[in-house]
From TrEMBL:
Coiled coil: none annotated. The purine nucleoside phosphorylases catalyze the phosphorolytic breakdown of the N-glycosidic bond in the beta-(deoxy)ribonucleoside molecules, with the formation of the corresponding free purine bases and pentose-1-phosphate. Cleaves guanosine, inosine, 2'-deoxyguanosine and 2'-deoxyinosine. It comes from Clostridium liquoris. One of its GO terms (cellular component) is cytoplasm. GO terms for molecular function: purine-nucleoside phosphorylase activity. Belongs to the PNP/MTAP phosphorylase family. This is Purine nucleoside phosphorylase. InterPro entries: Nucleoside_phosphorylase_d (IPR000845), Nucleoside_phosphorylase_sf (IPR035994), Pur_Nuc_Pase_Ino/Guo-sp (IPR011270), Purine_phosphorylase (IPR011268). It catalyses: a purine 2'-deoxy-D-ribonucleoside + phosphate = a purine nucleobase + 2-deoxy-alpha-D-ribose 1-phosphate. Its EC number is 2.4.2.1. A purine D-ribonucleoside binds at residues 192, 234. Pathway: Purine metabolism; purine nucleoside salvage. One of its GO terms (biological process) is nucleoside metabolic process. It comes from the Bacteria.
Length: 271
């Protein structure tokens, strides 16, 4: 997407809202409930926005939700666009760019993920300290828009250290136990094999999922501060003697959503 197209999409949204969001929040599978806490809420469906692809996954509503959360102007993505849906990586950049050019400075990315670290249990929340891009492609491949960000963005601090510290402090204050670890993106849509999970663990991964990494790359490129939170919805393949399915993912995220909602809304208040 070039800057003209981004601006066209931003213009459509701007005409329909009367706040300037300062924080963007991407809600992962089963975590869309946080949007219900938004006051003075305005929803804008992705499919109505020029140039935007549509989300097709069950459990993903496919809209931006604008309004106030704990006194802060926010924009949430209730449902994200995934690479496995068949879109070219570069299109995944647009929803992030729209939020950037609407005015956000910070992006909170959340996801459902499989626990690779054997010290995790389903229902754990993990602050993401770093990631490994096992999708082996990148949303920034192609012509670089110098006005958006540099050709070769630094990823050595992709997940903002101050925000991680804030998350840890708030977790402690609220008595919510938080894990911390490395998120690994696989393309999906298959869940991983036990051998792949073993490899990911050996290479330093703590959680595995099918999203987030492209969002974070794009966010970092255009100068946003990022906080990432994974909801460990299941143990990754081969750890327990049981098959994996999307139903378990949704059931676990439903079980922990109260904890998740409390944590994220408190973080938003303190940012
Ligand atoms: N693997 C990949 N993606 C996931 C998983 C998993 O085990 N759980 C939730 N999203």
């Amino acid at each position: 997407m070039n800057l003209e197209q981004i601006k066209e999409s931003v213009q459509y949204v701007k005409e329909r809202i009367d706040i300037t969001p300062e924080i963007g929040i991407i809600l992962g599978s089963g975590l869309g409930d946080l949007a219900n806490m938004v006051e003075e809420r305005v929803n804008i469906k992705y499919e109505d926005i020029p140039n935007m692809p549509k989300s097709t996954v069950v459990g993903h509503a496919g809209q931006y939700v604008f309004g106030k959360l704990n006194g802060k102007n926010v924009v949430m993505m209730q449902g994200r666009i995934h690479y496995y849906e068949g879109y070219p990586m570069e299109i995944l950049a647009l929803p992030i760019h729209i939020m950037k050019y609407l005015g956000i400075k910070t992006l909170i990315v959340t996801n459902a993920a499989g626990g690779v670290n054997e010290g995790f249990i389903p229902g754990d929340l993990m602050l993401i300290k770093d990631h490994i891009n096992f999708a082996f492609t990148n949303p920034l491949i192609g012509k670089n828009e110098e006005d958006v960000g540099p050709r070769f963005p630094d990823m050595s601090n992709a997940y903002d250290k101050d925000l991680i510290q804030l998350g840890e402090k708030i977790g402690k204050d609220m008595n919510i136990e938080l894990k911390k670890g490395v998120y690994v993106m696989m393309t999906g849509p298959t869940y991983e094999t036990p051998a792949e999970i073993k490899m990911i663990r050996i290479l330093g991964g703590d959680a595995v999922g099918m999203s987030t990494v492209p969002d974070v790359i794009v966010a970092k490129h255009c100068g946003l501060k990022v906080l990432g939170i994974s909801c460990i919805t299941n143990m990754a393949a081969g750890i327990l003697d049981q098959p994996l399915n999307h139903k378990e993912v949704i059931e676990t995220s439903n079980r922990v959503k109260d904890k998740f909602v409390k944590l994220v809304s408190e973080i938003v208040k303190e940012i």
